[in-house]
Amino acid sequence: MAKNKVILALDSSASPLLCALEARGKVYAAKKSGLKQEELIFPLLKKLFAGAGCALADVDKVFFIKGPGRFTGIRIGITLASMLNVLAGSETASATVFDALKYQAAGAAKGRVIVAVAHASRDEYFAQICDGKQQPLWLGLDDLKALLKKQKRPLFICGRGKDGAPLKTILGGPYSYAPAALNKIRGATLIALAKITKTPKAQVLEPLYLKPARFETGK
C-alpha cells in the first residue's frame, strides 16, 4: 500500500468497541465500552476523523475483525466495510480475533505454540491453537482445559477471560502466559494487520460465527 493513504480499522466483535485510523502516517485510536455498538460507532468515528482532519469518503482501505463475537457487533464491521466499498471504493480486508491476538503475541512466544482465547459467555470461551492446523472452537471451560492438557508442545496463551480476568487464574496449568499488554487487541495492531492483510474478495465479508459449546456437547 502506498504511503499516506487513509486506513480505517475496527473491532466491533466485543466490548469495548475499538476504532483506529491512520492518516498522513499518524495513527489515531479510540474505544468505547457498551453493548449497543450501533449507537456508539458513528460518534467514535466522528471523533477520530475530526482529529485526523479527514472524512469517511477519504478512506482507501477498511479493515475489520470478523469474529468470533457478538452477532450484532460483527455485522457492524461487515456493514461499514460494505458501505465504504460501494460509496468510496475503499479496499476491504478482514481477520479474526485469533489472528489479531496471534499477531500481538508472536514476538513474545519464543517458539512456543500460541493459543488465542477470548471469553464467549458464562463459562464458555472462543479458542484456537494457532499452529495452522487446528480450527477455532467455542468451548466450555472444562473442555478448554482438557484441550490444552492434551497438547504435547509448550503453549503460550494470550487473551482474556470474563470482564478482562487474567487467563492464568482461570486456566492454570504448566503454560506460559502473555503479559497483560498483549492480551487485548490494540488500535496499532488493527492498523498493522490492515496493511499486510489481503483477504480474497469472496471471503472478506464472510463472518466467523462459532457454534456454542452447549450445542456441540448436547447439553
Proportion of helical residues: 25-40%
What is the N-to-C succession of helices and strands?
EEEHEHEHEEEHEHEHHH
Number of helices: 8
The major β-sheet equals: 5 strands, mixed
Strand order of the largest sheet: 3-2-1-4-5
- Coarse shape: globular
- In CATH, the topology of the largest domain is named Nucleotidyltransferase, domain 5
The CATH architecture classification of the largest domain is 2-Layer Sandwich
Would you identify the CATH H-level superfamily of the largest domain?
A: ATPase, nucleotide binding domain
Q: Which oligomeric form is depicted?
A: single chain
Brief write-up:
With 219 residues, this protein is of the alpha/beta class. It has 8 helices and 10 strands.
Primary descriptors:
10 strands, alpha/beta, Nucleotidyltransferase, domain 5, 219 residues, 2 domains, five-stranded mixed beta sheet, 8 helices, single chain
Topology:
Blueprint: E1 6-11, E2 17-23, E3 26-32, H1 37-52, E4 59-65, H2 71-88, E5 91-95, H3 97-109, E6 113-121, E7 124-129, E8 137-140, H4 141-150, E9 155-160, H5 167-171, E10 176-177, H6 187-196, H7 201-204, H8 213-217
Parallel strand pairs: 1-4, 4-5, 6-9, 9-10
Antiparallel strand pairs: 1-2, 2-3, 6-7, 7-8
